[in-house]
Amino acid sequence: MTIKDDLQKLLDILPQDLQQILEKHPQRDSLVEVVLDLGRRPEARFPNQAEYLGETPVTQEQIDDCIKRVGTFGADNRAGIEQTLHRISAIRNRSGKIIGLTCRVGRAIFGTIGMIRDLVETGKSILMLGRPGVGKTTALREIARVLADDFHKRVVIIDTSNEIAGDGDVAHPAIGRSRRMQVAHPEQQHQVMIEAVENHMPEVIVIDEIGTELEALAARTIAERGVQLVGTAHGNQIENLIKNPTLADLVGGIQAVTLGDDEARRRGTQKTVLERKAPPTFEIAVEMLERQRWVVHDSVADTVDTLLRGRQPSPQVRTVDDNGNVNVTRQLTAINGRGQTLGGEESFPAPARQTNGWRATGQMIPLPTLSGQQSQKSSGVSEFDRLLDESFNGFDGFDFDSTTTRHAGPNGEDLPLHVYPYGVSRSQLEQVVGVLSLPVTLTKDLDSADAILALRSHVKNHAKLRQMARARQIPIHMIKSSTLPQITRGLRRLLNMDDPEVNDDREMQLFLHSASDDEMDALEEARLAVEQIVIPKGQPVELLPRSPQVRKMQHELVEHYRLKSNSFGEEPNRRLRIYPA
Fold first, then answer.
1. Could you tell me if 208 and 234 are in contact, meaning their C-beta atoms sit under 8 angstroms apart?
2. Residue 156 lies in a domain
3. With contact defined as beta carbons under 8 Å apart, do 243 and 385 qualify?
4. Distance from chain centroid for Cα 169
5. Separation of first and last alpha carbons in the chain
6. Are 81 and 187 in the same domain?
7. Which of 39, 71, 104 is the last residue in one of the domains?
8. Inside any domain, residue 32
9. Residues 386-430: pLDDT tens digits?
């Protein structure tokens, strides 16, 4: 990235003693803003800290001296420095006298939109969201330059506070060939937006800080005339716009709809639900969480519809590493073995790779490769007001480490096999993989998964999972229940492995894994009953009374032998009865 900030011009308007301190400051090049308040010590703010520049309070004379060196303050109490991007904002007392200044450094950073350059090329309208100071205006300025210089489009910037193209009549060179229309009064921004379309034939209009209902309506009018819009709005996520009645129209608007009895029954919802009112003004939304981490909703309409139905969307997460490479991942929601909704706040990079042996041949020859997994718990909560509260549900998340090195298998496929679990107990999956030494790694990233192992009951009720798997050509293997025998058979089917003999020692280790002495005695009792009586003699057997937890382990062991068992009797004498095949 190339950075141009003209920092010296901002320092020149400050009092002489503050200039000297900042010019020698070790963090001079990362200065964010300087704050001068009457009767208080001057303060310099940097990305990660703030510090005082002296012990002497700021005087009115110093503030007046700074005001003389900058441009005229407009109705929005903002001024600038000719041919720079710096912004000086004023704080006035009740009589209108300026008693405080915020001198913010404006930087033109070339190359900031590498993460979303492919989206800019599509010609779709893009909305940038983020908290103040995260770099929305900087990204907006760079998008305007790229569209004008690289794609040769007619770009018009609506520059209300001269923050995009700088102060003065001549626009800053950072916007390239783009044209800039200044706004005399902030409340007239929506009029200038319409004027730009009617008078100057733009292909792209760039707007900073859409904040009123009139500006939102003007943006919709422009979008419906076939002009690409690129704008910003304050708010961390799309949910913030949905809850903001002033700006909700940017994402299509929200309305309450009363359903008929049959439709409400079919949907399984109450009769009054929330739905999107119209197509969104902006087709793409970018949530700028951090300067190097953006969340991209490539279809705002689908995201809003998903949120209003009480589900979590699956947006892209784009990050930039230290080498400048862009990593595109996808945020997904899942369900754990207890049927609770889980959503991962972070996702792992999905490396681009060719479809090879696994998806081409449909089978894998297993290798005795051990792979370990680690997990970290994370959580996220979304809430809505009134009806919106009923549309959003809280969720907890889990992350899987999928950084295991992959090796080429005998058919040219990648090993270990990356499995995306859905509704299946992760701890039991790890136990089966570890004890049986299967070449399997659990992953939370559906884009990099080779197969999905899911509970049959959960897949039936999740059409979106089936649709995503079909689009990515990922096979779904279903099991009846989240038990050790079912998980073992499911993984063996995935790996195209034959079922072992009933006395396979490694299979038996699954049931003895981390078992207590009493549990081991109970499992040994069940094993001997099956192998010495039920199978060879074809006779049912009753075992000794056990606790519910131990009986559950015995049931799983019997299921491993493909036999049936029932519990009968009253506690504490409830026990297992095993039946022949």
1. no
2. yes
3. yes
4. 41
5. 70
6. no
7. 104
8. yes
9. 555 555 443 333 333 434 444 444 344 456 788 888 888 887 788
